Amino acid sequence: MVFPFRKKKERRLKDKYFERLYEAFEWGERLAKYVHSLEREREELAEEYREARRKGDFEKAKLLEQNIEDINNKIMKLKKLLKIIETERKRLEREGEYVDAIASMSKIESALRSNLWLLSEALRPQAELVLNRMEETLSTSRKAALPDVDTDFIYKNYVNEENPRVSGVAEEAVPEPSPVLLVDGMVAKYDFEEVVEKVYKVIETYVKFGYSNKLSVRKIAQHVGVSEQEVRKALSELEKRGKIKIRRSSS
Q1: Would strands 186-189 and 180-183 be described as parallel, antiparallel, or unpaired?
Q2: What HEC string does the chain produce?
Q3: Cβ distance 102 to 17 under 8 Å?
Q4: pTM > 0.85: yes or no
Q5: At what angle do helices 98-115 and 58-94 cross, to 10 degrees?
Q6: Least confident range of 20-29, 167-176, 241-250
Q7: Nearest-angstrom CA–CA distance, 223 and 207
Q8: 119-164 residue pLDDT tens
Q9: 131 in Cβ contact with 113 (< 8 Å)
């Protein structure tokens, strides 16, 4: 198995998310071996089942058949978990950004938690350790807060028509939006409720000073520091709550 951060000292992104994902991918190799051992066990039971049938021991054959079915179900579920891990590994080889790491870890963490009970006693302790570390990292990210939207700053720099930064270079003056936040070296996903609140604060600011005609999804995204997709979700939520009314062009 080869991926960009196979060796920790050679990894390009030495970040908590990638450390945790590296551990999950490494553990996935052990899981693959475990699944292979289950497949061998299934074959051995299948041989015993055929032998019992030949000897007419149908009671034993029935018990063996149930055992084989149980192992089949376990193999099927664990292979789905393996597929998720492998898919995310390949995706991160192509897209090694922070936001991709967050999405990958969330998927793997959820799948691993759902299948933990299927693991052997020998395999479970390391799986629990990997899972706990991922949950801790994701929990840290959920505690992050968006920076405050400063009304005076928006008005003085991006709303006021008399300010030269509004024309020509205004779009360049605001940093490009990012769907993640770096907090103490950790990657943090924004809380949706906070996004909704900050988006509404920007709208209020523009309306207050009579510049609502200057508003756009992109401009709001730049002020809040999130993607335009997140802004659109927030706007839809504000409309549902009756806070705003979105004008939609007729097609």
Answers
A1: antiparallel
A2: CCCCCCCHHHCCCCCHHHHHHHHHHHHHHHHHHHHHHHHHHHHHHHHHHHHHHHHCCHHHHHHHHHHHHHHHHHHHHHHHHHHHHHHHHHHHHHCCCHHHHHHHHHHHHHHHHHHHHHCCCCCHHHHHHHHHHHHHHHHHHHCCCCCCCCHHHHHHHHHCCCCHHHCCCHHHHCCCCCCEEEECCEEEECCHHHHHHHHHHHHHHHHHCCCHHHCCHHHHHHHHCCCHHHHHHHHHHHHHCCCCCCCCCCC
A3: yes
A4: no
A5: 170
A6: 167-176
A7: 15
A8: 999 899 999 999 988 887 777 665 556 667 777 777 776 655 444 3
A9: yes
How buried is residue 142: exposed, middle or buried, by Cβ count under 10 Å (0-12/13-18/19+)? exposed
Q: Which residue has the higher pLDDT, 28 or 212?
A: 28
C-alpha 207/C-alpha 15 separation (Å) is 41
Residue 146's φ and ψ, nearest 5 degrees, are: -70, 150
Closest residue by Cα to residue 115 from 38, 57, 185? 38
Place of tokens 């759902």: 114
Identify the CA nearest to 105 among candidates 78, 128, 127, 137: 137
Three-state SS letters, 15-66:
CHHHHHHHHHHHHHHHHHHHHHHHHHHHHHHHHHHHHHHHHCCHHHHHHHHH
Return the higher-pLDDT residue of 9 and 142: 142
Fill in the amino acid letter for 26. E
Cα separation of 160 and 142, whole Å? 35
**231: nearest Cα among 240, 221, 216, 222:** 221
